[in-house]
Structure formats: C-alpha cells, structure tokens
Amino acid sequence: MPLSDIQTRIAAAEAQAGRAPGSVTLIAVSKVQPLERVRAVLDEGQRVFGENKVQEAQGKWPDFRRDYPGIALHLIGPLQSNKARPAMEIADAIHTLDRSKLVTTLARLAQEMGRCPDLFVQVNTGEEPQKAGVLPAEADALIAMARKADLPVVGLMCIPPADADPAPHFAMLRDIAARNGLSGLSMGMSSDFEAAIAAGATHVRVGSAIFGERVAAP
Ligand SMILES: *Cc1c(COP(=O)(O)O)cnc(C)c1O
C-alpha cells in the first residue's frame, strides 16, 4: 500500500477520534525489508523508522542518515543488555525498556554518554510467557524506578496477543500510562493501527502495510 494511503488512513482515524491532526506519529517499520524499498519510502518523505535489531539498524541507517537529513530511528525489538550501548548510540527512541536490569544498564550508560534516547516501557498486556514486556502489575514500579534513575521515560508500548481483540489491551496500556502521568502510547501495527488511534495511540508501528510482506522472518 502506498505510504500516502497509510497517512490518509491515520488522518481519518485521528479525525474520527476527535484528535488533533498530526497527533499520531507513524513509525515505518523497515526491519528485513530490501534497501530499495526503504529508500523509496524515504523518497516519499517518511523520516521516522522502526527497527527490531541493533545490528540490522547499524547496517543500514548510518548510510541513510547521510543521504536523508532528519531521520528518527526507533528501536522496537527486545533489547539485550549487552547491546544497550550500540542501541543508545544509534536510536532516537527505544520502545522496549522492560526490566530493572535494563534500567540500571541504561542509566549507567546515559551518565557515561551524557545523552539518552526517549524511552517507552514495554508492557506485556496479554501476560504471554514468550513475549517481552513487564507484567501489568509490575509496570508502575518499573516506571518509578526508571524515573528515579533520571531516565527519559516518555510513554508505554505494547504488542497485543496475535489472535485477540486488541482493544482491551490498548485500553489497559492507556490506563497504566494515565495513572503514571505518561503521554506517549506506542501501540497499533498494520492490522490494527486505526483501533489503536481510537484508543489514544501517539505512535503507530506499521511495517507490512507500507512495505509489503516481509521476505524473511523478523
Ligand atoms: C514487526 C513489528 C511491527 C510491524 O508489524 P506489521 O504487522 O508488519 O505492521 C510493529 N511492532 C513491532 C514490535 C514489530 O516487531
């Protein structure tokens, strides 16, 4: 689907929900996509992108940043502590802060580096054992810990269970954010970004609807 169609659908969902035009940031998820497809979307003017893996991001984004000013890169995949430094070097935002050990690591690196990307705390709203994210009951404590460590927590992120109605998960994320005074909500993907916008998403992460099906597994 052309980028402009996705932009039109986002604008319609914003209007439908009574939200201000432009209040939702589209993150184009470019993981595993061929470089020429990513370049085509850059040529259409898109500047905010999402990647799952630090190494993959390191392989493509330094060159794109040289060619296209104003790129913002969001890391949206699970983050291992031993990849935290390169992640902080390459990313403008990290959506997957999900455990106390990572809070400690990021806080130490932020001190050393004198900067830190915007952070979203990932919440495992479906309490799925195979999925990353802090459990909903433990989210408040993790957010408090990250704030105490002076980390720039700007919002929350979730990936609802694949076969479930996402709406209750979006609502849960919104409630946890509200009671913690957080304004950012990273939720909604190709199949459900309009429902996420209706529920208050500020960042939608859309991959296959823009780029087509991924050729390799993410
Ligand atoms: C791959 C991925 C997306 C994009 O998924 P699509 O269904 O292709 O839009 C969004 N968020 C995360 C965390 C992902 O890993």
TrEMBL record:
Gene3D superfamilies: Alanine racemase (3.20.20.10)
Top-level taxon: Bacteria
Pfam families (UniProt xref): Ala_racemase_N
Domain Alanine racemase N-terminal, residue spans: 20-214
Free-text function comment from the UniProt entry: Pyridoxal 5'-phosphate (PLP)-binding protein, which is involved in PLP homeostasis.
Annotated PANTHER family: PROLINE SYNTHETASE CO-TRANSCRIBED BACTERIAL HOMOLOG PROTEIN, PYRIDOXAL PHOSPHATE HOMEOSTASIS PROTEIN
Protein name per Swiss-Prot or TrEMBL: Pyridoxal phosphate homeostasis protein
Organism whose genome encodes this protein: Loktanella atrilutea
